[in-house]
Specification:
Elements: H1 2-33, H2 42-50, H3 53-71, H4 74-79, H5 81-106, H6 113-138, H7 142-156, H8 158-172, H9 177-212
């Protein structure tokens, strides 16, 4: 009983931290759209030249981040299934816009093809896994829907991991920015997917171990 309570407490705290991080990065994305232009900032210069894909990506990715904690919250799914479905379609639309605009931005990513290819694969995987999750929901396979959408949320959270990696590489390790940025372009989503897969497979592995014992 104590172990169950401890496990529930850990899950609640982890969910709260995740929601706060999602809201913080989403607020940064929305705020960036209304910030002043900084000509000495290389990112600002690239974004200014890019066009509409910048506001589309920042707004859609920010919306997906805000919706992600709600969509994986079991209480919402059980108590208000219609709200969960509505939020799911909004999330899917945000992913579609965010991924397509992200592909456009990746062509001129800071660091060239080394980082751009990482962001491009992230956008494609984001689209693919979200589409699979939607297809499973339409087919009535809700277990597979849950698993694919958790993978999609892991990719949505790449925006959080990206900034954590940049802060670690630049602020703590004092590494060259381009080196850190290229590593973050790949690590922000591959690390998230690896952690998600471990989490998804751990209960099955534990059940198999119990059955063998």
């Amino acid at each position: 009983m104590r172990m169950q309570r401890a496990g529930k407490t850990v899950r609640v705290l982890a969910g709260l931290v995740f929601a706060i991080l999602c809201a913080g990065v989403a607020a940064y994305a929305f705020g960036y759209l209304y910030g002043d232009y900084k000509p000495r900032n290389p990112f600002a210069v690239r974004f200014a030249r890019s066009g509409l894909d910048v506001p589309a990506h920042f707004f859609a990715a920010g919306l997906a981040l805000l919706l992600a904690p709600l969509q994986i919250w079991g209480g919402l799914r059980r108590r208000w299934p219609r709200l969960h479905r509505t939020g799911g379609w909004l999330y899917a639309a945000a992913v579609l816009i965010g991924a397509v605009s992200g592909l456009s931005l990746a062509r001129n990513a800071h660091g060239g093809w080394a980082s751009g290819s990482g962001f491009s694969l992230l956008a494609l995987a984001w689209l693919w896994m979200t589409a699979l999750g939607i297809a499973c929901a339409i087919a009535g396979d809700y277990e597979r829907h849950r698993r694919w959408m958790l993978r999609s949320v892991a990719l949505t959270a790449a925006a959080i991991t990206l900034r954590l990696m940049l802060a670690l590489g630049q602020g703590v390790l004092q590494l060259p920015f381009v080196t850190v940025y290229i590593a973050a372009a790949w690590g922000c989503w591959t690390i998230n997917l690896a952690v998600c897969e471990l989490w998804l497979r751990w209960p099955a592995r534990r059940r198999l171990g119990s059955a063998a014992a």
